[in-house]
Amino acid sequence: MPGFQIEHLATVDSTNSRLQQMALAGACHRRCLVADVQTAGRGQRGRQWLAAPGAALLFSLAWQFHRGCALDGLSLAVGVMTLDALQSLGIADLRLKWPNDILAPAPVLAQESDDAPPTLGKLGGILIETVASGDGTRTAVIGVGLNLRSVPAATLSPGALQPVCLDDLTSAKFERDALLETLLVHYDIGLARFAQDGFAAFRNAWWRARAYGDAPLTAKLPDGSELQGHVTDVTSRGALVLASDWGLHTLVSGEVSVRAARS
Questions:
Q1: pLDDT tens-digit series, residues 201-243
Q2: Which of 8, 94, 118, 205 ranks highest by number of CB atoms within 10 Å?
Q3: Are residues 130 and 234 in the same domain?
């Protein structure tokens, strides 16, 4: 695989946590940890990431950036890279939900009616954490989880998006290591591009792939309040611009959750 040192772990608390520890101990550029099972896997806003053994591709990779490189929008850019990799394998109709979710049409049986627009479910997610190094670099630990096989509904937290797996989207049976190889090829190229040009290089692609299009959205803010409006832009630094009845709002925090507004 393109320049990545890969380590497979049967069980780990969290691939992100383990890789952060390694980054604190020394340089680990292009290091990748893949786990069969995570006992304390997590997603955005501290949510637990649950996956049965073999049901998901769970991995984290480390990429060192110069300390002056702005990492704003990195999760969005990694989303674009992930879609590019999956689309190269024939997986179509994927969408990106700001700031870190990968969505796909839910199975047909889950639709309310034949005339209803496809319900989007969660295929995967991205969690990025950074570690400062003493050599003028900053290491981004990029955690990725993708559902390969079906996810039992009983494992879902209240209000969570319906899960979607690759088995729902194609008759091809993608195995973990082959899928990882394709992803790492795209990350290798994409992260080098991000280091040079930042999120601006991925902005147009993210906008085209944005979930929900021009439909009204609801943003849940860190204080628990909600804001409803329409997305009008994503900035060159990855912030989401939402237009509401009270004006324009620029959402920058990873603690903000965005979802389709209820009709």
A1: 999 999 999 999 888 998 888 888 888 999 999 999 999 999 9
A2: 94
A3: no
> In whole angstroms, how large is the CA radius of gyration of the chain?
18
pLDDT tens digits for 152-202?
655 555 566 888 999 989 888 888 999 999 999 999 999 999 999 999 999
State how beta strands 56-66 and 240-244 pair: unpaired
Q: Are residues 21 and 48 in the same domain?
A: yes
Q: What is the CATH classification number for the domain harbouring 228?
A: 2.30.30.100
Pick the range with the lowest mean pLDDT from 20-24, 112-116, 223-227, 229-233.
112-116
75: domain CATH number is 3.30.930.10
Residue 62 is part of which domain span? 5-208
Note whether 66 and 123 are same-domain residues.
yes
Cβ-count burial of 63 within 10 angstroms (0-12 exposed, 13-18 middle, 19+ buried)?
buried
SS3 45: helix
What are the backbone dihedrals phi and psi of residue 83, each rounded to the nearest 5 degrees, phi first? -60, -40
The secondary element (H helix, E strand) that includes residue 144 is strand 137-147
Query: What is the domain count for the chain?
Result: 2
Distance of CA 1 to the CA centre of its chain: 21
Same domain, 43 and 139: yes
Do 103 and 187 lie in one domain? The reply is yes
Q: Give the single-character DSSP code of 248.
A: E
